[in-house]
Amino acid sequence: MDIKVAKFGGSSVADANQFRKVRDIVLADESRRYIVPSAPGKRYGGDYKITDLLYLCHAHVQHSVPFDQMFDMIRDRYLGIVDELNLTIELEPYLEEIKEKIAKGASVDYTASRGEYLNGLILANLLDYTFIDPKDMILFDEFGALDAEKTKELVEKCLMEHKCAVIPGFYGAMANGDIKTFSRGGSDITGSIVAQAVGAKVYENWTDVSGFLMADPRIVENPKQIEKITYQELRELSYMGATVLHEEAVFPVREAGIPINVRNTNEPDNRGTMIIRDKESIHSDTITGIAGRKDFTVIAIQKNRMNADISFVRRILSILEVNSVPVEHLPSGIDNISIVIDDAYLDNKLNKIVKEIREQCKPDSIEVYPNMALIATVGHGMVYTRGVAAKLFASLAEDNINIRMIDQGSSEINIIVGVETNDFEKAVQAIYDGFVE
Ligand code: ASP
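Above: inputs. Below: predicted complex with aspartic acid.
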């Protein structure tokens, strides 16, 4: 029988009502055999996440400030869920033990991981699935990196013995048994690891949106949902700011050719977005999505016969390297090159960098354009379809948006345009309208 691994994010397990939805989803399909929950997330805007409270408890102990009140909030939340669902599990002793350990100075990773641990116990009880503590299967090496090989072996071995199980997300353990968490949002990674190890047919990632949208809904009203997207397209879109999944979650399943299905716990009939490996199964003559980011600076450098000076580009890049500033894009012409820098890394170094380029590279001109926004229009269809680029540029021109920079990556699934920050929202809308409306 096919196996599905289903991971439920924080909002999907935020309260008893959400747990009921999870139960209905899991029990509706018997191939949903391995379930990975996050810790309870926000129930409404302004609510708190259990993981955040746990980090706060740890910080209180570090500063010798009492954390009882904070812990009570955590306790009430869990006990409320157990109570409302009429579960048989006795959670009090677990809560007591955890509180005691935190009070005695337990590590930050142990403390934070208890959010998932407790939720795993609750969900296993609700579903009548076996609870499996990931500390015995998900292993980290002495540098804190996931030991992928050992982990795969252990997860495979352990889960083979259990037809159905709940495995809390977000953490595992070091070789000495110390609990270690992934970075924030890391339950996605746990789900992906489990899916790979059991050779799942699909890795379902249940959250509070029905997959990916073609554009940011804060900019475009009611953007269309993306039905299918390749891993590569997703990578391009998420680099530009469209995030639903933890970045590292993609690798284990991608490697194994397992698709990820992003689904909405609050709208289970919606099929969500399928992230697949194979571009051939997307027969699209249009784009897949649009994403963008503000706050870039472009340094435009011009030098006659630039291509004859074979060390020119290297010297520019080494100046950025010495200043620890990464380069985001490097569009170039015959006698010019532009360096696109994310402002987050610029840290008042701009004048110094420009001065050094002037002195060391002797360009004919160098100009700086701050306040740039980059917009990526992504889609495999672009390679096969004539006129996609024309449509993109025409849409922007029709709306009077000045394109300051164009970069088509060599992957040919992506055209990036640079516009002034003030034009950002207007440009995203124009591109969307050009392709969709
Ligand atoms: N609970 C953890 C966090 O808030 C991990 C997760 O939800 O994936 O970051």
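The longest helix spans residues 108-127.
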